[in-house]
Design goal:
There is one protein chain. The protein is an alpha+beta fold and 248 residues long. The chain has seven helices and 13 strands. The protein has a seven-stranded mixed sheet with strand order 1-2-3-5-6-8-7. The chain has a four-stranded mixed sheet with strand order 11-10-12-13, covered by helices on one side. It has a two-stranded antiparallel sheet with strand order 4-9. The longest helix is centred in the middle third of the chain and has 15 residues, at 90-104.
């Protein structure tokens, strides 16, 4: 498999793997705008030359859009291999490239979000354990911060206090999200309209800066849905899923 690194110079022409290929689509536009703003913060986006969900996205942890204390580490936003790309060792290729790059940049190790049991859109804990990762910290909703130190005795990364006990103020449904995930640009408005049409309280909070994301009341910032203050899921909702959730 050949891989290509997406940069400011080739961002416009490259397919970004997890969104549809039409550059004029709002999902693609939002994701590419988010990426463009992160490259100066050290973000790396490495993907297969073939179209499909086969890529790794990582950034120095000090610049991660997550409430973590992990100075000196590299934070993996997403490692995603799916469909026909599974089972060929591409995850190993991408992770190895991240390790080599991070070591060359003098990082202490890697960190990434997961959980005790596999959850949608989070790294598989079985795979992380197989690759030598360990749990560094855990929030009260079961979301875990895993890490792979490069040196023995390296300080463990951890969640910031604001994220240890995830919550949302107010009644009804509250969604925290960013444009890191391209699908939010399409489906967050869909859920907003669906909630309004069914008389359900719903508030979407766009985390539109690194500072906002790093101080969010949830370890997962790409998509975190709450109801009456309690965390529900990081799995994205379309209209059908949201209607099922509210029992309509």
């Amino acid at each position: 498999m050949e891989y290509v690194r997406v940069t400011k110079e080739n961002l416009e022409k490259e397919h970004i793997c997890c969104a549809i290929s039409n550059n004029k689509d709002v999902q693609v536009a939002s994701k590419k705008a988010w990426l463009e703003g992160r490259f100066d913060d050290g973000l790396v986006f490495l993907k297969s030359v073939e179209r499909g969900k086969c890529f790794i996205e990582y950034i120095p942890a000090e610049n991660a859009w997550n409430p973590i204390d992990a100075d000196g580490y590299m934070y993996i936003d997403c490692l995603w291999v799916s469909g026909s790309f599974k089972g060929h060792g591409y995850s190993n290729d991408l992770l190895a490239a991240c390790v080599d790059d991070s070591r060359a940049k003098g990082k202490k190790g890697l960190c990434i979000l997961s959980s005790a049991k596999k959850k949608p859109f989070l790294a598989d804990p079985k795979y992380l354990k197989y690759k030598g990762f360990e749990v560094a910290d855990e929030a009260s909703n079961g979301i875990q911060l895993w890490y792979l130190p490069f040196e023995e005795g390296a300080k463990k990364p951890c969640f910031k206090p604001c994220a240890k006990n995830p919550h949302a103020d107010g009644k009804g449904y509250v969604l925290y999200y960013t444009h890191q995930c391209p699908f939010n640009a399409k489906y967050v408005p869909v859920v907003e309209e669906t909630a309004k049409a069914n008389g359900v309280g719903f508030r979407a909070v766009l985390l539109d800066s690194k500072e906002a994301a790093r101080n969010a009341p949830t370890p997962i910032t790409t998509y975190a849905l709450f109801c009456d203050g309690d965390y529900i899921t990081n799995e994205q909702m379309n209209d059908a899923r949201f209607l099922k959730l509210i029992g309509k």
